[in-house]
Write a structure and sequence with these properties.
Structural class of chain B: alpha/beta
Strand content of chain A: under 5%
Low-confidence stretches of chain B: 251-273
Shape of chain A: globular
Largest sheet of chain A: 2 strands, antiparallel
Helix content of chain B: 25-40%
Membrane topology (chain A): Multi-pass membrane protein
Keywords (chain A): Amino-acid transport, Cell membrane, Membrane, Transmembrane, Transmembrane helix, Transport
Radius of gyration of chain B: 19 Å
Helix content of chain A: over 70%
Chains: A mainly alpha, B alpha/beta, C mainly alpha
Mean pLDDT of chain A: 85
Number of domains of chain A: 1
Radius of gyration of chain A: 19 Å
Order of helices and strands of chain A: HHHHHEEHHHHHHH
Strand order of the largest sheet of chain B: 6-7-8-3-9-10
CATH class of chain B: Alpha Beta
Oligomer: heterotrimer
CATH superfamily of chain B: P-loop containing nucleotide triphosphate hydrolases
Organism (chain A): Xanthobacter aminoxidans
Pfam family, one (chain A): BPD_transp_2
Mean pLDDT of chain B: 82
Shape of chain B: globular
Number of strands of chain A: 2
Family (chain A): Belongs to the binding-protein-dependent transport system permease family. LivHM subfamily.
Number of domains of chain B: 1
C-alpha cells in the first residue's frame, strides 16, 4: 500500500511539472500550429534561472519559506524571453512545418550553450530547499510538503488557464484565432499580437515548470533535450492541441515513469514509448485529439 | 437495358446515422453515353459520386462497373478497373511538369512501378502515351513546364488529361469547368467530348451546375433531390418540364438549345496558346 | 481547447527535385571525384573527417528519398544509423564475423526487418504526426540500447573491431586503415549507392513518390498506391541509413546509444536542409558542409552548439533552399546575364 502511494505521489508530482510544459506546447500548437522543440529549453531556462533567483533572494535575506513564490515569480519573469523568441519564429509561420521544427531545433542548440555559458557544465541544485516546507503525513506516508504545494500550484494553473480560455474575451479571441486565423483577422483581431501573447504564455508555462522542479532535482545541460521527448510523449498520448489531453497524458506518463522506476528501472523510458506507440496504433489522434491526416 | 450498362447503381442507399444522403437511387451509364448529374446543393450529388467511384460503400444496394461489384474498392483499384475521376477544384501536382503529371498515370497503367531502378526517361511506351494525351488536350507545347506555371484553364485541362492518361473506359468529372471563364468552359467541354472519342472512353459522367453545358452535351440527365432520383430523362424531355428545371436550379431556362441543334463550333482551334 | 489538425497536404520542401534533375548526378559525381583526389593533397586529419562524411552522405541520400522526394519528414532516422552501427558491433565483437560485406548484408537485413513493421505503422500519418511517430520509435530504440546493458553495453556502447575488406586484412595503425583502404571502400560504396539512388529517383517509381509528395489524393486516383509507396520509400531510406551507420561505427570504432538519440536525427535533417533537400546532391553537399563547419567551429570555440544552432536558424529563415538553392540562383543569374 505504501509502495503504491509512493508511486502515486511521485508520479503525480512529475505529472504536475510535465503538464505545465505540455500545456505550453499545446497552447502554441493550437494557435500557431508550430511544434516547439525549444519548449525543453524554456523548461531548463526556468530551472537555471530559478536557482539563481533563489540564491539572490536568500542572499538578500528572504526567509526560507519564500522559495516557492520566488521560484514562480522567477519562472514568470524569465518566461518573457518568449517575446523575442516569437519574433524569430514569426518569420516561418506561413512556411512548411519542417522548417518550423528545424528553426526551433536550432534554438534548442543555441540555448544549450547559453546555459553552459551562464551556469557551467556541471549540474546545479538547490540544496534541499524544499525541506523548508517540512514533510506532511499523507495516509500514513511522509512526503515533502513542497511536492504537494507544486501539485496544488499546477492544478491551480490548469484551472486558471482553462477559465481564461473559456470565459474571458481574450481567451475567446485566442480560440477564434486558433480555429481560423484569416477569419479572425477579418473580424479585426490583431493576430500578430495574439501570437506573441500566446507564445509568451506558452513559454512561461515551461519556465515556471522548470523553476518548480529544481528544489526536487538538479538542473543540467541534458534536461532540455530529455524533457522534449517526454513532453512529446505527453502530447501524443493526450492528442495534439488538446488541453485535457495534456492533463491526461501528463498523468499517464508521470505515473508510468514512477511505477517503472519502482518496479523495473530498466524499463523507465521504454515503458513510456511503448504506451506512446500503443496509443498511436489504437487511437491515432491521441486520447483527446481530433482526427488527423 | 441495365444488363449492358457500363456502370450501374441499383437501389443504392447511403445514410449517416439518421441522415439519409441517398435513398434507393438507381442510375446507369450505357456504352457511349454522356450523363449529367444535376440537383441543388445537398441533394446528394457528392455522396452519389463517391458511391459510384467506390470511395464509399453504400448502406444498401449494389454498384457494378463492367459487371463487377465496386462498392468501397478505393481510388487505386478504381483506376485499375478502368474508371477515372476528376475533381471540382483544380487538382494538380504543382511542382511536377506536364510530362511528369501525365507520366504518373501512364506509369500506373503500364505497371512500371515494381522495379525502382527502371528508367523513366528511356521508356518509349510511357513517352508515347504521355505525348498522345498531351496532343489530344493541346498541351504538347507545355510538356516541360511546371503545372503551377500553367493558366487556370490549362490546369483544368491537365487535371482532366491526367485522368485520360489512365485510358479509362469511364470517366467521372465533378464540375469540369468550375472556376473557368465562360469562354473557356465550352472549349474545355468540346475538348473533353472529342478527347473521349479519340481515347476510346466509353462513358462520361459529369456533375454540373451550369445548365447551358448540361443541355448542350448530355445524352441523359439525372436530377437528384433530397437523396432521391427526381428525373432521369433525355435533355429534350428534361428541358420541356419547367417544374423540373425549377426544382433543380430555380427558374432560369437554358439559353442554349439542346445538343442536336447546337452549332458545332470549332472552339478547339481558337484556344489561346 | 482543442484544434482540428486535418490538413490534407504533405510536407513539401521549397523546391522540387525535378528542377535539378539534369545537374543532380553531375554535381554528385563532381563531389565524388574531388573526394577521390583528396588523399593526394589533404592532411590525414582532413581525411579522418571525410570518412564519417561518407557515412552521413549515404544516410542522407536515403533520408532525402523520404523527405525531399516523398515529402515525409522523419525525426527518428538516426535509428537506422544505430541499426547499422550495432550490427557492425555485434558481428565483429560478439560473433567474430569480420567480413565487411557480410556485416553490410546483415545491417541491410536488420534495417528491412525493423523498417517494415515500423514503417507500416508510421506511413499512415503524414506531416508532423509522421515526424513525431518516427521520433517515438527512434527513442524507443534508444532506450532499449541504453537500458539493456548486458545486450548492448548500455551507455558504454560496444566496440567495433576492424573489419576485413573483400576478405583482406589490413595491418598498421587505425588512422592508416581509416584514411587508406577504408577511405576508398567507403567512397566506393557512396558512389555506388548514389548512382543507385539516382536511378531510383529517375524511375517511374520515383515519379510516383514525388506525385505523393505533391498531392496524395490526386495521386491515388491516378493509380498510385500511396501507403505502399510510402512504405517502400521508408524501407529504402532505412537501408541507406543502416549502411551509413556501419561506415560511421567502423570509423569511430564504437557503437553507442548517442548515435540514435533524437538530436542526432535532428542533425540529419539539419544537414539535408543545409545542403538543400530540393536537389538530388543537396543533402550530400549539406553533409559535407556540416562536417567541415562543425569541425571549424569546434576548434574555434567551446560554444560550438550556439554557432551551429544560429547557422541553422539563419539558413531556415533566409536560405530555405540551402546551399543548392544558392547555387541554383547563381546559375540562373549567369544564364540571364549571358
Amino acid at each position: 500500500m505504501t509502495v503504491f502511494l509512493d508511486v502515486l505521489l511521485g508520479g503525480v508530482f512529475h505529472a504536475a511539472i510535465l503538464f505545465l510544459v505540455a500545456a505550453g506546447l499545446q497552447l502554441v500548437f493550437g494557435v500557431q500550429k508550430v511544434i516547439n522543440l525549444a519548449c525543453g529549453s524554456f523548461y531548463a531556462l526556468g530551472a537555471y534561472f530559478g536557482i539563481t533567483a533563489v540564491g539572490l533572494a536568500s542572499a538578500a535575506g528572504f526567509p526560507a519559506w519564500t522559495v516557492l513564490p520566488v521560484l514562480i515569480l522567477a519562472g514568470l519573469a524569465i518566461g518573457l524571453v518568449g517575446l523575442p523568441v516569437e519574433r524569430i519564429l514569426r518569420t516561418v509561420y506561413r512556411r512548411d512545418e519542417s522548417y518550423q521544427l528545424l528553426l526551433t531545433f536550432g534554438l534548442l542548440l543555441m540555448f544549450q550553450d547559453v546555459f553552459r555559458f551562464f551556469w557551467g557544465a556541471t549540474p546545479r541544485t538547490l540544496d534541499n530547499a524544499y525541506l523548508a516546507y517540512g514533510t506532511a503525513e499523507f495516509m500514513g506516508l511522509r512526503v515533502p510538503t513542497y511536492n504537494l504545494l507544486v501539485i496544488a500550484a499546477s492544478i491551480a494553473i490548469a484551472v486558471a488557464l482553462g477559465a481564461f480560455l473559456q470565459k474571458t474575451r481574450t481567451g475567446r479571441i485566442i480560440r477564434a484565432t486558433a480555429e481560423n486565423r484569416d477569419m479572425s483577422e477579418g473580424l479585426g483581431v490583431n493576430s500578430s499580437r495574439v501570437f506573441a501573447a500566446v507564445f509568451t504564455v506558452g513559454c512561461m508555462l515551461g519556465t515556471v515548470g522548470g523553476a518548480l522542479v529544481v528544489p526536487a532535482s538538479a538542473s543540467s545541460l541534458e534536461m532540455a533535450v530529455e524533457l522534449v521527448v517526454e513532453a512529446f510523449a505527453v502530447v501524443v498520448i493526450g492528442g495534439l492541441g488538446s488541453m485535457r489531453g495534456a492533463l491526461a497524458g501528463a498523468l499517464i506518463v508521470g505515473l508510468i515513469r514512477a511505477a517503472a522506476i519502482m518496479v523495473l528501472p530498466e524499463a523507465e523510458i521504454l515503458s513510456i514509448y511503448l504506451v506512446v506507440i500503443a496509443v498511436l496504433i489504437l487511437r491515432p489522434a491521441g486520447l483527446f485529439g481530433k482526427a488527423m491526416a | 437495358m441495365a444488363s449492358r450498362a457500363l456502370l450501374s447503381a441499383h437501389q443504392v442507399s447511403k445514410s449517416y446515422g439518421d441522415f439519409h444522403a441517398l435513398r434507393n437511387v438507381s442510375v446507369h451509364v450505357d456504352d457511349g453515353e454522356f450523363i449529367s448529374i444535376v440537383g441543388p446543393n445537398g441533394a446528394g450529388k457528392s455522396t452519389l459520386v463517391n458511391v459510384l467511384t467506390g470511395l464509399l460503400k453504400p448502406t444498401s444496394g449494389h454498384v457494378h462497373f463492367r459487371g463487377q461489384d465496386i462498392a468501397g474498392i478505393g481510388p487505386v483499384e478504381l483506376s485499375r478497373r478502368g474508371m477515372a475521376r476528376g475533381f471540382q477544384l483544380v487538382n494538380i501536382f504543382p511542382e511536377l511538369t506536364v510530362r511528369e503529371t501525365l507520366g504518373v498515370a501512364a506509369a500506373s497503367r503500364l505497371r512500371r512501378i515494381g522495379n525502382p531502378f527502371r528508367s523513366l526517361g528511356g521508356d518509349r511506351e510511357i513517352r508515347d502515351a504521355v505525348e498522345e494525351v498531351a496532343d489530344i488536350f493541346n498541351l504538347r507545347h507545355r510538356l516541360d513546364q511546371q503545372a503551377s506555371a500553367l493558366s487556370q484553364g490549362e490546369k483544368k485541362l491537365l487535371d482532366v488529361a491526367s485522368a485520360f492518361a489512365l485510358k479509362p473506359e469511364l470517366i467521372l468529372i465533378d464540375e469540369p469547368t468550375s472556376g473557368v471563364s465562360t469562354g473557356d468552359k465550352h472549349a474545355i467541354m468540346e475538348l473533353l467530348v472529342s478527347a473521349s472519342r479519340k481515347a476510346g472512353v466509353r462513358g462520361i459522367i459529369q456533375v454540373e451546375h451550369d445548365m447551358d453545358l448540361v443541355a448542350r452535351y448530355s445524352d441523359r440527365i439525372v436530377a437528384l433531390q433530397a437523396g432521391t432520383v427526381l428525373a432521369d430523362e433525355k435533355p429534350e424531355t428534361f428541358f420541356k418540364d419547367p417544374a423540373l428545371i425549377a426544382a433543380v436550379v430555380g427558374t432560369r431556362p437554358p439559353k442554349v438549345p439542346p445538343r442536336e441543334m447546337a452549332p458545332k463550333a470549332a472552339v478547339q482551334e481558337s484556344r489561346p496558346c | 481547447m482543442s484544434t482540428p489538425t486535418s490538413a490534407p497536404a504533405t510536407v513539401a520542401p521549397a523546391v522540387s527535385p525535378s528542377l535539378w534533375r539534369p545537374s543532380g548526378l553531375i554535381s554528385f559525381l563532381v563531389i565524388i571525384a574531388a573526394m577521390a583526389g583528396l588523399p593526394l593533397v589533404a592532411s590525414t586529419y582532413m581525411l579522418t573527417l571525410m570518412v564519417p562524411f561518407f557515412g552521413f552522405a549515404i544516410a542522407l541520400l536515403g533520408f532525402n528519398l523520404l523527405f525531399g522526394y516523398t515529402g515525409l519528414l522523419s525525426f527518428g532516422h538516426a535509428m537506422f544509423l544505430g541499426i547499422g552501427a550495432y550490427a557492425a558491433a555485434v558481428m565483429t565483437s560478439k560473433l567474430g564475423v569480420q567480413s565487411l560485406e557480410l556485416i553490410l548484408l546483415v545491417a541491410v537485413a536488420a534495417a528491412v526487418v525493423i523498417a517494415v513493421p515500423v514503417g507500416f505503422l508510421c506511413v499512415r500519418y503524414t506531416r508532423i504526426f509522421f515526424g513525431m511517430l518516427t521520433l517515438a520509435f527512434g527513442m524507443l530504440f534508444h532506450s532499449i540500447l541504453f537500458k539493456f546493458y548486458g545486450l548492448t553495453g548500455g551507455d558504454q556502447g560496444m566496440r567495433v573491431m576492424r573489419p576485413l575488406l573483400f576478405g583482406m586484412a589490413f595491418e598498421g595503425g587505425k588512422t592508416a586503415f581509416i584514411t587508406g583502404p577504408f577511405y576508398y571502400y567507403a567512397l566506393g560504396l557512396l558512389t555506388l549507392l548514389g548512382c543507385a539512388m539516382w536511378r531510383i529517383v529517375r524511375s517511374p517509381f520515383g515519379l510516383h513518390l514525388t506525385a505523393i509528395r505533391e498531392n496524395a489524393q490526386k495521386a491515388a486516383y491516378l493509380g498510385v498506391t500511396v501507403s505502399r509507396m510510402r512504405l517502400a520509400a521508408y524501407v529504402i531510406s532505412g537501408v541507406y541509413g543502416a549502411i551509413g551507420g556501419v561506415i560511421l561505427a567502423v570509423t569511430i570504432g564504437l557503437a553507442d546509444p548517442e548515435i540514435v538519440y533524437w538530436t542526432q536525427s535532428g542533425n540529419l535533417v539539419f544537414m539535408a536542409v543545409l545542403g538543400g533537400s530540393g536537389a538530388f546532391a543537396g543533402p550530400v553537399v549539406g553533409g559535407l558542409a556540416f562536417v567541415l563547419l562543425q569541425d571549424t567551429v569546434m576548434s574555434a570555440t567551446q560554444y560550438w552548439r550556439f554557432v551551429m544552432g544560429a547557422v541553422l536558424v539563419l539558413i531556415v529563415i533566409f536560405f530555405p533552399r540551402g546551399i543548392a538553392g544558392l547555387f541554383g540562383d547563381a546559375f540562373a543569374r549567369l544564364k540571364r546575364g549571358s
